[in-house]
């Protein structure tokens, strides 16, 4: 496996603009989304613990409690956030990470051939040397 | 349990079908698996939807199939609280771990946790976290299997446990993860179909208006208005929050769930499998509304004795009332398949911890062959299975099943999740931090459960062993303790090598560079030539999906 050679300069890839863009874009979604679902979920749990009477209040129709409706919003929230994540991953992050991989493997037109990419460390390592897997 | 009259012939026949089908799968799988990757990761060749079904099958135990509906039957709204936590938890898995596992790991979550650490101590810590979770979860499931099978089919408790353990070990030793995955897929299909049938049947009984579930159930409950409110089962507010923490963070530290992400070819497939899993798991948990409130509405107060103290037999009793002996037998068979799929997933993850983490990486320092590693895994699976059977029979039906599942989630949330998350996100995090964090997490969650009032001095006594401590769920304390352990340990030592390797782990986990290739082994089979072509294609790093 060419890409598992020890001569890959991971630090340089990490600092590359392509990778920085990927992590920045991903963090801009994951961090707020995680905070949002944690707040929404623990808000619900805290209400269950501390506001039992409010959760038991019925509205719209007899038998339907605030607590059950709020529980249903947790289902909707989970599916909606997950779908949003996948949309962004497919449209934004996959192309970005493909760009990072291309820049490493030199697969893009005009870039150096595989194995001679710009993230290779030193020249001494043989072309097809394999690192033990375990 | 009211069905312990004699062996139920119909149920036995359904059990026979379940065992027969899973054994055929295991036989086919045994002919296909050739490498360690086939054994632990099903050749990394499951599709996203297949793995999504397998995740649903791996995750939803008898506690989900019978336990939650039972809790709703007895305590009303509080039972449904579990469903919410169990589903929302997958957002943490999706956002923080699923793709990262696939990209940077190989067979066990320890591959990612210990990636940039000193191998022996970090692997040992991860193995401890894995084995602790599996021990509590597995024994809970085995005892549950014994109780349910004894109650529904009439096979005595020890024999029911021995049979469950024997089938579980057979799937793993002969068919590895390939057989385990397909057992889980079939179980998920059976369980969801069974849920749909029961839900539609219940709705037809109550006049097709879902709101009637609540009003009829309330009318049949001696708790009246309180039945539809939180607080009947979880009466201490702080305990409710603590349980919520354990549920939502525990899933992200369950070794058998994290292991499932190694069975797909790409990070994209790992992502799609979480979505499939979340849709299927969410749909089933929505149906527990009909199963739980419905069984209260239809069985009423008269069903309380048959359903048992914790309501575990509410769904079987409901099935018996609606569809008679045949539907009861089908529910029993599905419960059996459910338990088999979960215990197989647990034991294969434990065998990974013993063979891959402890034996290969600690004892043999990577000098063993792949063949040896798989052999050790099979011996480990056999040993773990035997031990679990022994403890389950020794502990017997008196072991409190729900507290052990809660403990498994607490250990996963307090020991595995902090170390795994920090390994991926905090450059300064190091081996000492991982070891101290896992130890703090395991010890604090186990100790807090032991001193909790439900365990010591016992459920019937007033107050706990320590008058100032009354939480039944340790999460609100043990999860912060786990994180503090990680932080303190890290600050004790400076490990430049681990910090330097952070870039490598980060780039690999986010991009899939140098990810382990798929072997192309599937149950339906491919020629060796196609398998080689698939492996070659995977190594060129072009995403295959």
**Using DSSP, what is the number of strands of chain A?**
0
Q: In CATH, what is the class of chain B?
A: Mainly Alpha
Helix content of chain A: 55-70%
Shape of chain A, please? elongated
- Rg of chain A is 24 Å
CATH superfamily caption of chain B: Sodium/glucose cotransporter
Structural class of chain B: mainly alpha
The CA-CA distance between the termini of chain B, in Å, is 49 Å
Query: Mind describing the biggest β-sheet of chain A?
Result: none
Structural class of chain A: mainly alpha
Largest sheet of chain B: none
What does this structure look like?
The complex is a heterodimer of chains A (134) and B (545). Chain A is mainly alpha-helical and 134 residues long. Chain A has one domain (8-105). Chain A contains 4 helices and no strands. Chain A has helices at 10-15, 17-50, 52-56, 66-105. In chain A, helix 2 (17-50) packs antiparallel against helix 4 (66-105). The two termini of chain A are 14 Å apart. With 545 residues, chain B is an all-alpha fold. Chain B has a single domain (9-395), classed as Sodium/glucose cotransporter (Up-down Bundle), CATH 1.20.1730.10. Helices cover 74% and strands 0% of the residues of chain B. Chain B has helices at 9-32, 36-41, 48-59, 62-75, 77-104, 110-113, 119-152, 157-205, 211-220, 237-250, 255-259, 267-299, 304-307, 314-363, 370-395, 401-425, 431-450, 475-492, 496-500, 502-511, 528-539. In chain B, helix 1 (9-32) crosses helix 8 (157-205), helix 7 (119-152) packs across helix 8 and helix 12 (267-299) packs antiparallel against helix 14. The radius of gyration of chain B is 23 Å and the shape is globular. Chain B starts with 8 loop residues before the first helix and ends in a 6-residue tail after the last helix. Residues 1-5 and 541-545 of chain B have low confidence and may be disordered. At the A-B interface, helix 1, helix 2, helix 3 and helix 4 of A face helix 5, helix 9, helix 10, helix 12 and helix 20 of B.
